[in-house]
Amino acid sequence: MNRARITGTGMYVPEKVVTNFDLEKLMDTSDAWIRERAGIVERRFTESEIGTAGLAYEAAKIALQNARLEPKDIDFIIFATLSPEYQFPGSGVLLQEKLGLPGIPALDVRNQCTGFIYGLAVADQFIKTGMYKRIMLVGAEIHSNGLDFSTRGRDVAVLFGVGAGVAIVEPSADPDRCILSSHLHADGRFAKELYVENPGSLHTPRLTKEMLDTESVCPFMNGRQVFKHAVVRFCEAIEECLVANNVSPEQVKLVIPHQANQRITEAVAHRFGYSMDRVFSNIHKYGNTTAASIPIALHEALMEGKIEQGDYVVLVAFGSGFTWGSVLLRW
Ligand SMILES: CC(C)(COP(=O)(O)OP(=O)(O)OC[C@H]1O[C@@H](n2cnc3c(N)ncnc32)[C@H](O)[C@@H]1OP(=O)(O)O)[C@@H](O)C(=O)NCCC(=O)NCCS
User: Fold this and answer.
1) What residues have CB less than 8 Å from 309, skipping those under 6 apart?
2) pTM for this structure?
3) Lesser CB count within 10 Å: N end or C end of the chain?
């Protein structure tokens, strides 16, 4: 059986920086509140029509270069996003078109903040069976045109940003450098704790003027409930992948959590006794970019030299659904 490995990463964020002070001008919030409650200082927004697949394409070019591959080498695309260009089809086929790869399959993953982890688990299985050999896995997100920037939506709007991250997954020639295991979970009893209700297929018609006048077309979040569950599930998922591989917390070089909230990241670090240099964080720069946050963080960690060959690295996420999961890698 083949083992799978990430052979190249890339990221892209738009140029437009939006600071907390910029948001102060739109709603009743403050730089101090956002920093203290979430650890976010600024995020990136886009005003262009680049689209989610367009963001991904920019990140994909860098990932291909780092993996020393060309677009034609890719035989499968997995695209995780909650903010596709259209209701359907998903962004996967749009990226495939940009890469000039007609015919290869494109799978869209809808697992929100856990999307990259779900996608990586799928990629790992396809590589293991030998069905595909060079998979492009994407997490990309555009939030800047999907939030309520009035005071009504401030609890959610200050948290999210725009970005894309890509990982290339291939068979590993070295059995010591691979994805060791992945662990996925979900609990639909909490689906409405973090969701966008409309437009959706429950209502006829799907979209009305009344819906547009309410916040139901923007994300609703029960912040405290999400926070409470996130800390527990992040810790469980980390524990699960370590136990499955008989690896101790001390052996882990770096934990790369989904960038949900700096306080969540710190609570998780505290639980395992990690100093903050062993738990990667870049939320101050980008906010929460949902499915894109882990591949962006992984790319930055690699560029900053925080991961070396042979290191154990944990990727872990929690998000809407609720969904959560982890992956243990030997780099
Ligand atoms: C959203 C979150 C930062 C709010 O922090 P909190 O400490 O729970 O704050 P609360 O919701 O209790 O709100 C505290 C007060 O701040 C206010 N507030 C909410 N958003 C605000 C904002 N952007 N600016 C200023 N005040 C705000 C609330 O209205 C509330 O006021 P009140 O006490 O007068 O009612 C926090 O709950 C959180 O991070 N949750 C998880 C979010 C997350 O990770 N989501 C993605 C999952 S992948």
Assistant:
1) 177, 331
2) 0.97
3) N
